[in-house]
Amino acid sequence: MKTQAAESAIEEKETSNSRSPEYDVAQIMGGLYGDGIIGLKGAFSREWVAELHDDVIAAYEDALKRPGGAVGRGSKRHYVEIHPEDISGFVELCTHPWVVAVCEAVLGPQYKIVEIGFDVPNPGAVMQPWHRDFPAPDDTITGRRLNSLAFNLTTVDVEEDMGPFEIAPGTQWDLPEQFEHGMFPPKSFYSRYEQRAQRKFPKMGDVSVRSALTIHRGTANRSSRVRPALVLGVDAPSANNAERHDLQLTKAYFETLPFNLREHLTYRIVEELEPIVQAHTIEGLMMGEA
Question: Are 210 and 133 in contact (CB under 8 A)?
Fold first, then answer.
């Protein structure tokens, strides 16, 4: 006959097992603290991504018509921050079990989504310099902790001539000695990055996540096609990247969001969505903008 204590222990174990993570925390942590980038293939259907692609292109065309709607990230290359309501699939992306598992593992249970936007390397976009997206915070330089992540989702199948993303694994830990603005290493460092460099060729439906401190660059788009990539920025409580962004939600849209997503958003409620003037400029990437 089972005692009450034994029954409680069995119930607790079953409850614990039912909540066990679908994705391995050790692999997530090892990948992001090691190479600085990991991915999940086939996270979404191609049909889901095709609808997202149409929304991104429409938002891009609208942004180019507005002063400050798009910011140059090099010749023929732009970044556009958007409203969650501008695209289909925002909720599905933010609540995907892998996205949630990664955020909780690396940033902790109080993580906050601070940014949604996209990069567009157009035909003719040239090679970017090696860089970080912002200076390394004290958490990383002295504490050796990652306090922010950037998820990327391509809206097209990426081919060799479309300007694939290139990254130098492990360089998120490099101290920013001699880095211009804390972000741009001197050209004398380039040989090390080129020895490590990996080009990424994701397909529609794949999702990746990286530390934006890992040294990277966009390569030249020699094709006749655009290569949009959605960006989802997420912070730990100790990070301050929300200061560079403006996540707006109308009250009506906010009320449609599941509670477990609301608590992970840094946002402001507005009566009507306001045009976003891009605040996350990267001076060293703006030369020769289209």
Answer: no
